[in-house]
Amino acid sequence: TLGIPFPNCLHLPQAWLDTQDRRLGHYVSGKWLKPEHRNSVPCQDPITGESLASCLQAQAEDVVAAVEVAGKAFENWSGLPGASRAQHLIRLAKMIQKHQRLLWTLESLVTGRAVREIRDKDVPLAQQLLQYHAVQACTQEEVLAGWEPMGVVGLILSPTFSFLEMMWRICPALAVGCTVVVLVPPASPTPLLLAQLAGELGSFPGILNVISGPASLGPVLASQPRVQKVAFCGAVEEGRALRRTLAGRGAELGLALGTESLLVLTEAADVDSAVEGVVDAAWSDRSAVRPGGLRLLIQESVWDETMRRLQERMARLRAGRGLDGAVDMGARGAAAHDLAQRYVREARSEGAQVFQAGDVPSDSPFFPPTLVSDLLPASPCSQAEVPWPVVAASRFRTAKEALAMANRTPRGGSASVWSERLGQALELGYGLQVGTVWINAHGLRNSEVPTGGCKESGSSWHGGLDGLYEYLRPSGTPGRLAYFSESMNYDTFGLAVPSTLPAGTHLHTSPHSSPTAPYGLFIGGRFQAPGARSSRPIQDSQGKLHSYVAEGGAKDIRGAVEAAHQATPGWVSQSPGARASLLWALASALERRESALASRLERHGVEFKAAKVEVELSVRQLRAWGARAQAQGHVLQVAELKGPVLRLREPLGVLAIVCPDEWPLLAFVSLLAAALAHGNSVVLVPSGACPIPALEVCQDMATLLPAGLVNVVTGDRDHLTRCLALHQDIQALWYFGSAQGSQFVEWASAGNLKPVWVNRGCPRAWDQEAKGAGPELGLRAARTKALWLPMGD
Amino acid sequence: MSARNWGTELDLSWISKIQVNQPAVLRRAEQIQTRRTVKKEWQAAWLLKAVTFIDLTTLSGDDTSSNVQRLCYKAKYPIREDLLKALNMHDKGITTAAVCVYPARVSDAVKALKTAGCTIPVASVATGFPAGQTHLKTRLEEIRLAVEDGATEIDVVINRTLVLTGQWEGSDFIKTSTGKETVNATFPVAIVMLRAIRDFFWKTGNKIGFKPAGGIRSAKDSLAWLSLIKEELGDEWLTPELFRIGASTLLSDIERQIYHHVTGRYAAYHDLAMC
């Protein structure tokens, strides 16, 4: 097969490599950088093993220098009018167009991927991305008023990801005014070429800098003080490690992890087309959403038919050198080959059926299209991520079972549903816990459609408006500084609960004394005694005992999370209108309780007037979020697709919130209202110093809201934070407390990679519109899902 | 022609169970045209192969014995002798698969081919071509007369009134269209038809042939059709018994491409014989 000639493609990338004397450095500040005394790694043709060039490996100081350059460039670039940035991006798109042949031949040569996919799909998409984001830059002042660019963005790419993954992230970052330092794995010349093309535009040389180096430089780049945002594409375990390393380091972390995709084939499907969907997903070298293996769920009634067609189709696949225009699959290098081989060997030993076919060269870097079936659900291979180019098929009986099987994995990247029955397709599409769902298609992408994930696939988005917000923060937010504490001990933070003893006389002497404060943990819709059967004293502003609150612990958190999960399906299925009316009812209840709440606040040192304002603002927040509950998601119309793409805003699930000490009532209500309006159920830890107003509100929630929807647990905040952060079945965590607590939360969230929002120990002005009720809350309170609905007769 | 399709019990559930997702089929059709780009000698080989599938066709109102004769000669010698020699294919007996004419011209064609001393079959469109809207009696008579004149293959226009009302007919070969419609052979339609052929084969063991007709003019198009057959049905369908391309101008473009492959130059029209 290697004898099949490809058009004279080779000389172009070779000639480009020659301009660098076959020795690639880094591209920083608009010029090539080739520092002395660096190790180099050979860049090899993955098929012949021939050495194409040597690539210098960066060291920490090179990273520091690149960040410095990007930081300088940021001052200028971010200050430009959006229209000027737009113009620059358009110029880059044209530059790529002029040199596209070099781009696609180089990429195919060094990655081994089929040149056809790069030429017909990737390069046009790269240009489309630049054009789309140029338009966004142009309208930024208007559409994204109130937001400002974060600063220097560090982008870390893993070896399996193509240059397109870089484009998906640098385009929005540059469009909104950020500058970028990209760390690419050793021997990836294409990103360097792109940086060179951008650099040769002349103006703004420092906005895009590419350095190549080992993965160990990732944390070095990410913890540079000027780096405000880190975007990472790679394997799940790498992402987890990075999350832990970066705890307390300041920069916000956006993760896009794993490569597996899912395909659900029902008996109502056009099976032949679905088989083509499998080919697109696993065996076509398409850099769809993530370039990996496929989990295939087939309805039992069409299992035999599908298997026959699939096997027949596999026999016609061709693998070979990527530059050959007639191959379906190239090779992906030795590492991918070995990974696939290990998986297949393991699957066989676990009793699975393995079918391999296709016209594939027998020598090492090539791996034949592989279909694994009859894996038992409990076997390790069923749990592990399916590697390229393997398809792991299993059968389901009903659509309901398909949904259960599909969602019973820690991964949440992308999936497709194949069914000609509209109702069934939508039911599955809405029910799948993933970032992207295609109905009767697989692997479509468009710059306007947000692509992201959930669960362990990481919660970051690229494309569309959601992609822009990744690199923006509300105007006026101070820069993110490291608040890392060396003395932090993750093993012991919040582990033990300080014991509490009776704390003196329990006086009822306040002039407008309300009845005794409610006592207990508000779990499952009622006040309960804490598992530890002990209490902690709450002092008023004079240091006198105000009352006791229940001392919650790990078991109470467990109960609260369980109760919240039970309430979730009911709340999610409520219409936004119904959610709004419940929030409004709660607002009215708060209004009726105004004097009691104000006096509680007063006892904690809030002036009477300010206390009244706080209650009023809280009421207003509930009403405002109630009103916003109605306006969720929208429909996108994308160029090459007939039919809509729905941008859905879906609830996160069970959201845990540790409320701040400042504004004990307002912050509690604001966070609660935003979470509920978006369909989440919540477990809250109220203000530590002043939890009583929150408990007062619980009395109304007990009568108004479904049981378990809101759970409020008082107690030692560090201890409760520890329990929440380490809980695997909490889908997101917002923490407003100490710097240490923030660091712990970031570290511990690596467990299930739940998205976290921490205040890094800085108080927030909850009474101000931008911070208290701002769109930031709304953005964080739900996740985006793109649902593609191609139409046709 | 392969063994006849003796048909099978009509089972309408086969038809009612068919699911076709149009956008997905359109995507597949788009892909198939880019996934198998063959170059150089591989391209030349595929082009010669394509020649052997052509039903070299003339279906004009002003057809006379002279242009039918010319057509038949071209069918026998589709590619210039010196070009075939350069490719070392001159003694492989490359001809088109058949010539295709109106019933009234069948005898001209049979005579011309006999004179040229070759055994290329003569196909005829019969049965009230291209609308098929004539009485069954005259349609059958038309077929009988064409066969009498020496036609060995008949392209029947089925009564589409019956199709649209769900009353089906059977055949050995299915054709995308008459070539006289506003929309003729397109890839998406072909994909659906080829999948039906494969399903029928899996169910009954009968191989049904396929003939796209109309609008296939360029050598590149013909290669895409070949790769479509290879991909959807497999190599066993890549034989004139099961695959034909109905075309009139395609052949000259293929010849031009072969000319370019052999000489490295692009041919002028007068360099190549007309048909």
TrEMBL record, chain A:
Q: Which GO terms describe its molecular function?
A: oxidoreductase activity, acting on the aldehyde or oxo group of donors, NAD or NADP as acceptor
In terms of superkingdom, the source organism counts as: Eukaryota
Known Gene3D superfamilies for this protein?
Answer: Aldehyde Dehydrogenase, Chain A, domain 1 (3.40.605.10), Aldehyde Dehydrogenase, Chain A, domain 2 (3.40.309.10)
Q: Where is the Aldehyde dehydrogenase domain?
A: 32-473, 539-761
Q: How does it assemble?
A: Interacts with SPG21.
Q: Which PANTHER family match?
A: ALDEHYDE DEHYDROGENASE-RELATED
The Swiss-Prot or TrEMBL record describes its family as follows: Belongs to the aldehyde dehydrogenase family.
This protein's name: Aldehyde dehydrogenase family 16 member A1
Q: Which organism is it from?
A: Canis lupus dingo (dingo)
Automatic annotation (TrEMBL), chain B:
Reaction(s) catalysed by this chain, per the record, are: 2-deoxy-D-ribose 5-phosphate = D-glyceraldehyde 3-phosphate + acetaldehyde
Q: Which organism is it from?
A: Canis lupus dingo
Q: Which family does it belong to?
A: Belongs to the DeoC/FbaB aldolase family. DeoC type 2 subfamily.
In which pathway does this enzyme or protein participate?
A: Carbohydrate degradation; 2-deoxy-D-ribose 1-phosphate degradation; D-glyceraldehyde 3-phosphate and acetaldehyde from 2-deoxy-alpha-D-ribose 1-phosphate: step 2/2
- Annotated active site: 175 (schiff-base intermediate with acetaldehyde), 211 (proton donor/acceptor)
Pfam families recorded for this chain? DeoC
Q: What is this protein called?
A: deoxyribose-phosphate aldolase
Keyword list, A-Z: Lyase, Schiff base
Gene Ontology CC, one term: cytoplasm
**Residues passing through the membrane, by range:** none
Q: Which GO terms describe its biological process?
A: carbohydrate catabolic process; deoxyribonucleotide catabolic process; deoxyribose phosphate catabolic process
